[in-house]
Amino acid sequence: MELNNIYATQKEHIDKSLAALKKDFTTIRSGAVSVSILDGIKVSYYGTPTALNQVATVLANDATTITITPWERNLVRDIEHAISAANIGVNPNNDGECIKLFFPPMTVDQRKENAKQAKSMGEKTKVAIRNIRKEANDKIKKLEKDKAISEDESKKAHDEVQKITDAGITSVDEMVKVKEAELLKV
Question: pTM higher than 0.85 for the full model?
Fold first, then answer.
């Protein structure tokens, strides 16, 4: 049935939005530093912009230190420049063989700011979910207009779309709440 396709598509798009939010959350620094903070950094590898983790071993030694060991020694300078250009809040320390990043412990203000950032990401995802709802509702209205479904079926379909949307919004709220708790925990 056509309506089931609309629901399935809506759920699929909402799941993708939630997955994107989860991925966005990994870019926010919580108490312990995560190597995912370096995910967006590209290094020129023989003229090709290449992800940092594809030309070096990237490890989080402890809560405040990341060590980057290039697979080829001649890349140390390029990696150092790429990190400096990325402006992630720390200066790279190069010892000739590897690069160490020392992140200062986060202040309460930084934690609050990161929690705000998480909330903002959540709001953007909610807007995306509402847009997905609008698309689904538009498809239902078209089916009703084309006489493919009755007015009653249309009303039930709109209610179902709203239920799916509400579930998506609830998931976003829960994800944001968990992330905020993680960010504000000292």
Answer: no
